[in-house]
Amino acid sequence: MARTSPHIGHNAMEMMNLILEFVNNFNVDRLLYAINGKSLDEDEISNLTFDIKDYNVKLERQKKHLFDFGKTFNKRFTTDNNRCFDSSIKIARKIRSGTSGAKKVFQIFCKPFRRKLPDGCENPQAHKRSMINTPNYSADLFGLPSYPQCVKDLFTVMLEFYGNLDDCIDECKRQLQQERETRGDFKLLLKLLDQAIEKSQREQAHIIIAMDSNPQMRDAIMNDESLSSDKHNPVLKAYKQGNSKDKFAQTYFHNCSPSDISKITLFKAYSDSGEDPEMMKAMAVFGNDKEHIADINNIIDHFDELLPAKCKRNKVPAILLLSFMQWCKPEVGTKSFLGYFNKRYTANGGKWSTIKPSAIAGATSKSLFDKETEAIKKEFTEKIDDYVKKIHDKK
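Above: the chain sequence. Below: its structure as tokens.
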């Protein structure tokens, strides 16, 4: 079941804040105090340096992925794995090598804890027992220059590692703060929701078109439990209830998966079309503007009136159909557009033979380099505009 709380998880944020506090307080005196307190020898220090270098290499890779993720995370309505993780955990997992490395440093510098605690009491956590994190430390009398090179190398490596970790945690917190702000911006939320539905509609256009030509398939899809069951589809159920769209967008921002939006898209295509299969198909090809679809259908039904009295090879001229396709601005590719056009044109007794996608591709290539062809397209587009204007003037 999808999570319903818009709040971020506390454990992940607490850990990031804890490590960030340590990183900001880290200095050479803390390190020297911890090394002396644990009586580490040079081999142990060299091994620790090697481990932290390894953490840092992994962290730098994760840092790149985190910052790339941050460019798009709050521009998308959906997230993956939302049923397993909330945003803070999802983001924190992207720097797990860094956070686990920091926790291991705490553990390395912990003194043994032998005191038996009363029943029901837990052992103090590593960060509270770690000498490198203690507020009660004393500065080394002679400082870092008096120590062997391995200690200086360790300090240099730790500074680099903690610098990257600081950058990552700040970016995690920035992304989470941006998510909070986005969740409170209803105008932006609705825009992101609409974008998610439009993207899903383009991706599922082939399904919606197929549903038009196969009523049994349409009924099977719309009545399937994956769509019809409220129990299995809490997000779709909430969308169907038709309550405040603002509230829906706020509740399910980053709290639903792409598959949830896919189900909403199919339901929306079915309901917005008035359960009319022809309109479902048209909306899949051309979008949700029914007035624009009505104009397109009207033009197709009277397409021969716009064509020359004689067409070469008795076929619909590819360059003119390309011009019409670009005027329509379909949300699908040439093949799907032609499938829609050819079916409607033929069903309405079109005079000329229809063409294939290869003819449109050829006309497209030719128009890129031929000014005369572009002039033909422009003239035909103007003819379409005049025809549509006449239709609207009659209304």
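Residues 325 and 337 are 7 Å apart (CA to CA).
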